[in-house]
Input
Amino acid sequence: MRDIWSPPNVPAVEGYESLCANFRWQVPETFNFGTDIIDRRAREQDGPALIWENAAGETRRYSYSDLSLLSNRLANVLRANGVEKGDRVIIMLPRLAEWFIALIAAMKIGAVPIPCIEMLTARDIEYRVANAEAKATICRPEQTAKFASVEKLIPVRIALGEAAGWLDWDSEMARASETIEPAIVRAEDPAIMYYTSGSTGHPKAVVHAARAIYAWRVSAIYWLDLRPGEVIWCTADTGWSKAGTSIIFGPLSCGACSFFFDGPFVPKDRLEFLRKHHVTVYCAPGTELSRVVGEVRARSDLGRLRRVVTAGEAMNPVVAERWEAATGIRIDEAYGQTEALMVALNYPNEPVRYGSMGRPSPGSDLDVIDADGNRLPPGQEGDLALKMPNPQLMLGYSKDAERTAACFIDGPDGRWFLTSDRAEKDADGYLWYRGRSDDVINSAGYRIGPIEVENALAEHPAVQMCAVVGSPDTERGEIVKAFVVLRQGHAASLELTRELQDHVKSVTAPYKYPRAIAYIAELPMTITGKIRRRELRDREFARPASSSSRTSSVV
Output
């Protein structure tokens, strides 16, 4: 295998078959992203690492050496306040440079960062703090109130400004040293933790080892096609694992620079930023690309852009074709999940097939299998599974050994990790998504567990029973749709629909609210009293896809 420290100029020059045949994992015994990537780059190949801009036009630029010294300071602040190797650190920040600094700093001392989005409610935070046994948290002052009920459980609290009872970021950083003795982090040591929605109950706590942080650079080389000195703009939010691989870990491992925009989504502004910051690789969900392409008038609108990629939701082939026709640049989709990140890629210099998830990434044996773990031939639908061992895969779900064990199956040629997705492959090895094998809803790249939404709805006094499923949508792929049985004395109305939607937004992260609500007399149930969500979902997918703007009641 090539020296992964210095990415090749043309990643797939050998051709896909030769690349995969010759690829060998070379995972080191120890790997600390903060020292082995950031500090080493600062010493040996310093250059631009981060460009940040906000909606007001304020811009800041950071080199690898800037990130190295600033993360040393914060690492010393954390350590001085008792944060040690293995401690969990909740980092709830938007698209700010401090997000980069906080993740790197935690990793330097061997602590385990937990990136979270600011849309989380106080209840969401309560669960994460208790489940992770978080030792520290970092957030903006305006978010500290969400931690009020759990402050006593978190001994180290840092705010990006003044907040009563919290350490002030600027004051602490000003006093901290720029030199540090980093932790030794072994390949199997926990290195980062993400919460992701499942089909039952609370979000799953996915714990990744240091080996995964190291291994994720493979997709940055062979899919993002990043080269030292280039600029990538990935628009994923900070709480998603996609932000880890395509904003910080992958790009910085390749010596590239990330553009980070903290502001609202305005399609025409995307083109301005691409030109202004000389972005060469643009990574965005299909829903975003479908709106941006409408603003493209000429190839010059895109500046130096040479590559566009997407992941997190199935790419609509019509949108992909429109984009390529308007820009001359194709869209290369990849498939991954929080538990393993990108394991199927559409490669540069290889044929792209719009609508396909791509082909297995180098070093990943991803295939379609039956219930007994047998590989299925092309054209047959089955469970999409990843062959073990694979360094990209999680250590497991924190405090849930039973759920972790349920993800694996033994077959004739070894052990498989089940992704919970259904797929089939064609004669050339391209994989095609055929749906979920569980009830998780994928809406515009957001994974939403139906139980979370049902629990929120059930708290409203008008709701007797409810069921939540995904419903096909032309823009988002799927939207959250709720089927509600009302209590006596309550009647269906547009006003009630809005009230229920607002209630869900107040109880859990707002992106989970039901964009459509149907009021029905009774829910389909099994003889044992369980809701048959699959029946409701199948009914929805038998109907033509609608527009995601629909919010009115269906009575």
Notes: The first helix runs from residue 16 to 22.
